[in-house]
Amino acid sequence: MNLLDLLILALYLGGFFFNLSGVIGIIRLPDLYCRLHASSKNTSLGSTLIIMGLALRQFQMGEIPAGIKVILIGTFILTTTPIGSHALARAAYKYGVPLWEGTVVDQYANAPEIKEA
Amino acid sequence: MNQVDSIGDNSEALSPLEQRARRLARTLPPDLLEASFTCPLCNVQTPARGIRARPLQGVDQGQWQLVFVCPACGLITAFDAGQITPEKITFARDSQREDWWNELRSFKNAPRSILPKHVHESGLREFWGTFLLTFVTWMLLIGTFNPIDVIWGVVVSVVCARFTFRYAGISLPKGVFQPARLGALLALLGEFVRQLVVQNVSLSMRVLNPNLKIRPGIVAIPTRLRGDLPLTLVGSLSTLTPDTVVMDIDQHRGIMYVHWIDVRTTDPEAAYQLISAGLEEKISRWLV
User: Fold this and answer.
1) What is the pLDDT of residues B160-208, one digit of tens each?
2) Does A35 reside within a domain?
3) Which positions in chain B touch A29 (Cβ < 8 Å)?
4) Does residue A100 fall inside a structural domain?
5) How many angstroms separate the most distant Cα atoms in chain B?
């Protein structure tokens, strides 16, 4: 068990921790908008860590193309997750999904009309 | 509501057809302004706002639409001008002005020159850019240089690029990858990774804390960036990094509406300093 193995193991464990806390957050947080935080941030970092671990493992075994593929998948996750959560949040608000009653402030409610670009 | 403007401005050098459209939009009969088109979302009566040109996908033409904007929820409802019927919109009074309807219906196709810009700005350059991106991705995913795979890659990339190049509106400004700018790009990446880790740990602590200490809210913060690429970058990065999810961006006024899970201040300038000042500074140093 050398240093690289330990690093890979640490990446796996970190990814597991963040994915787990993302799932717990989805269950515990009170409304859709807060749950989006857990589902977009925590799970994307968790998956990215696991993917980095996988890529290192592939490089360690000498499978360079497989490692590149895995890194590519990680890039896709990191670029598409924020766009998806942005679209979900906006669509939910426009549709009228209510905010949690403990919400402190809503400055979007009386926002001036936004012109289409 | 007597002053009705045609949606979509930029008024220099109007073509005759567009002038006609604006005249029509300004002379919407008073009955129509009193018309009760009920918003399907919130059942509020919405007045007509005017007519606009909408680009059609895949062809270089567009269509005229009569547009209603709900005052309560902002929902935009548009009817194609060529097919609209009086039954779709109920009038307060009985007069249905046949000639006005006929004039509205005579608007069928909007010519290329008055469509929104992104439709005809994308051309061959965007097509080959999209093709190249798709092809490189394909080759990385396949990982071999087998002739059959390469040929399939070309076919798939051409098909993908044909259908999506019109939306590839983002182009990098010149000199972004010069050595002098690379330092700024690296600084942006470093800041991104640092914030990603720090904020994820803080969110995890928040979620796993038995008391669930959250103060969620939606705040408006100013943004000093302009243009598609910088705004896309700051929106995506600040969705991933600080305690925020971006909900909407008002490009004209420079406002970003974000859902903040731990509202510490509602003052726009202070919130800007807390949320996006660091990222924006690094992005503008790289791109501008």
Assistant:
1) 888 887 666 556 666 667 777 788 888 888 888 888 888 888 888 888 8
2) yes
3) 207, 212, 214
4) no
5) 72
